[in-house]
Amino acid sequence: MQRKSEINPEILPQWQIDLINQVLNTMDNYYCLPDKFSEKKEELKNALVIKCKEVNETILNDVSSRVLPSPEQYKELSSQLNEVLHNFDPHLELEYNPKFIEKMKAGNKIKLRDNSVIFDFSEGPPKEEIEKWNQYEQDNPNTRNFGFIDYQGPSGLIPDNIGYVNISHLIDPQLGASETEKKYRMGPNAIKRLHEVMNGLQKKEGIILDLSVTPYGGSPEMVQNIVSFFMPDDTPINTVHDRVTGTQKTYEAISTPWKLLDKPVVILVGPNTFSGREETAYDLQQFNMTLKEKRFTVMGQSTKGGAHPECSFPLVDTTFGGINDTFVLRVPYATSINPISGTNWEDGSRGVQPDIVIPKEENSLMVAVEYLISLIPQYSKAESVIQTQHITGETEELLASRERMQEFKAKVPHAPDISSNQEDVKKDDSLTSPFQITPKPPQEQ
């Protein structure tokens, strides 16, 4: 009788059987949640077998696929298999890149930062590779302005007293800090830009953090720097548990030049929000649970749900003991634990769940502006928003519905409300609302 771990060689060619076994063995060694992997290993293996069969029939045009594919076919194979791997864990990914393998040795751990640069996970990246990464950062439009793009907001939509920041990428604060490459100094310049952006928010009465646009994550240290502006010093933020090293690292709010502790904040999220930018939203959303006067409202749609930092590992050949010279596997090797929820945005509910769901066909930025306008009088002590700011035509339309928004806000389960010290009003199911309201799911213990 065939053992469960074996794949029938009549179904797939040996090179594909080896590839699947290499993926499973590498996950067995390094995946951050070994119990989850053990429980779902057979299911994952079967899904990979089925996907390989589909690829052989529809893409490689060879049911038996005894001939090794071309580079283009290899890339398509990895893309198809990643549909299965991403369903298991959004950070889990197989990548076709033989050039990486040339620099690898068995047992090395390699950290990918983009599609052309290898970072040695244990010893740090060589100088020339840092410089390549920095050039990539300079040339990539999603990382211009060091990850903070369009921080003045779309012209004409955002009132003068509302601050808007589009966070596109979380650059490692340490990247470029060494003496060996002063040309770009990405990390220090990213922190400098962060301080410039946050300085511009000091005189605003409401803030929008837009995390919904780009699909990039980034550095947990940059997450720490961002959320620290909104928390008292030493507030616990997140703990990362590393299975590979057996260690854990706790992040706490650090001292910043000033704090933004007294302003309502809307955090825009959506399907593109991933990894570190998910953590930014989740950290502030969970911190909000500890506040008597709620300040943070997450709006938009559920995020992708990737809470496990990944590292790229070579695939050890299961037949000959060498290294697969075609693929590397990005394996989530660590998991994040929030000090308030006791879980994260992947192992609890998949994705950060918005406090207010905005259908994708609606303009989430306009909704956020409208929502903040309904809150600002409670914070600013001004007689009305109209008397304290310049009003554009679009903003005037938003202000016209302020009364409707205030009535609506009073019934939103998790909306900020500092007009009283009463607990949140329970949802009225009979309420006809411009939004779909999604109560927070219970946290899994």
From TrEMBL:
<dbReference type="GO" id="GO:0008236">
    <property type="term" value="F:serine-type peptidase activity"/>
</dbReference>
<protein>
    <submittedName>
        <fullName>S41 family peptidase</fullName>
    </submittedName>
</protein>
<dbReference type="InterPro" id="IPR029045">
    <property type="entry name" value="ClpP/crotonase-like_dom_sf"/>
</dbReference>
<dbReference type="GO" id="GO:0006508">
    <property type="term" value="P:proteolysis"/>
</dbReference>
<dbReference type="Pfam" id="PF03572">
    <property type="entry name" value="Peptidase_S41"/>
</dbReference>
<dbReference type="InterPro" id="IPR005151">
    <property type="entry name" value="Tail-specific_protease"/>
</dbReference>
<feature type="domain" description="Tail specific protease">
    <location>
        <begin position="150"/>
        <end position="359"/>
    </location>
</feature>
<feature type="region of interest" description="Disordered">
    <location>
        <begin position="409"/>
        <end position="445"/>
    </location>
</feature>
